[in-house]
Specification:
Strand order of the largest sheet: 1-3-2
Mean pLDDT: 87
Order of helices and strands: HHHEHHEE
Number of helices: 5
Distance between the termini: 40 Å
């Protein structure tokens, strides 16, 4: 068989798939609004400060987090979602932080000062996140949906 028609070695194909996956994740992150990016940045800054890896965007978690933030802002109230709703990706674990305040840094600080919220942010089990941002008047609502895919 001529060299130009040989099938690529399996490791080369895997490397190509890995590059495509990284590019897709980068595109997803690039699609975040500046406000959503700030929510993700604050969360990942806290993770880095504690020696943890950052979390990239999971598409299902992202759609869920944004939709839930918008719902909370519309209703001008705060409560948790039914976590599995809207998550089509195969998952092993889910978590959620919901909060409101005057701005994203203040909300992130409140999460980090709350045992349960902090545990979600600093958990090593997550391999993806979705972040939501919405407003009602001067009140900012953020949602962080954490996912461990399996």
């Amino acid at each position: 068989m001529p060299a130009h028609t040989k099938k690529p070695h399996r490791s080369i194909r895997r490397a190509g798939v890995a590059v495509a996956l990284v590019a897709a994740l980068a595109l997803l992150s690039a699609c975040l609004s500046p406000s959503q990016s700030q929510v993700q940045s604050e969360l990942n800054s806290d993770r880095r400060a504690h020696g943890l890896s950052t979390l990239g965007v999971n598409a299902d978690a992202q759609a869920k987090a944004q939709a839930w933030a918008e719902k909370l802002a519309r209703e001008n109230t705060l409560y948790h979602s039914n976590l599995p709703d809207g998550i089509r990706t195969r998952w092993c674990s889910l978590g959620e932080n919901v909060g409101y305040g005057p701005n994203v840094p203040t909300i992130e600080d409140a999460y980090m000062n709350s045992t349960g919220h902090r545990a979600n942010i600093l958990s090593t089990k997550w391999n993806g996140v979705g972040v939501g941002y919405a407003t009602n008047g001067n009140r900012v609502f953020t949602v962080q949906v954490f996912i461990k895919t399996c």
